[in-house]
């Protein structure tokens, strides 16, 4: 269970399958990859696995309902194999592998990853503080993520959000929480990508800190296409790889003027 996402660019395969069909096909392919695997790397940790032959039952949650499907090794290449060569040179991919426009973030999200996200935001200094202030005015405060967190440890390893704070001149503090960062990155951003990505790029540390000035942020929000040349990919971090991959696709989405689809 987790967050499925992909870059919507309207390629031939996406048009052929339609967005719901494309997402379903990518999810089946991800499940079927278990048949070819001998170990899984989960946030930097290698886990040995042994999959029985035949079919594998998979349980997912969609719209609050538990859905059971069955995948087989044939699902790995069957319906999608003829389309793989068309992925060559696609600018919507985060890797050079076929169907690299798709990714997945598994639940529960680790507390260490939430701390890493807050550390990246805090490292952006004044730019991130300004971004948090703007998000306050837009009503993006992390409420949706906080609601998910209250459901126990299904979605998050920790029952408490990670927090950082900037001390202001009047003695008060401006707080940034992992609830707000995740709410922006996973749930608000896909609904208004062009409008919100300049704020997300700053808060997620996808622009050089020296460029994250008030004037620059305002300019990027007015003219979103002026931002992509300044985007920088995150450094490799095996223990947070699912989010590193997600950030890579955010950059690809912005550079290509595409749309982002998230189902989680």
Structure, described:
The model has no long low-confidence stretch (mean pLDDT 86). Helix 4 packs across helix 5. The strands form four sheets. The chain has a three-stranded antiparallel sheet, sandwiched between helices. It has a two-stranded antiparallel sheet with strand order 2-3. It is α+β, with helices and mostly antiparallel strands. It is 38% helix and 19% strand.
Counted beta strands: 9
As residue ranges, the low-confidence spans are none
Helix content: 25-40%
Task: Please state the average pLDDT score.
Answer: 86
The secondary-structure class comes to: alpha+beta
Largest pleated sheet: 3 strands, antiparallel
What's the short version?
The chain is globular.
Draw up the topology in text:
Elements: E1 2-8, H1 12-32, E2 39-42, E3 45-48, E4 56-62, E5 65-71, E6 102-106, H2 111-123, H3 126-138, H4 143-149, E7 163-167, E8 173-177, H5 178-188, H6 193-203, H7 214-222, H8 241-256, E9 259-263
Antiparallel strand pairs: 1-6, 1-9, 2-3, 4-5, 7-8
For this entry, give a set of tags:
264 residues; alpha+beta; two-stranded antiparallel ribbon; 38% helix
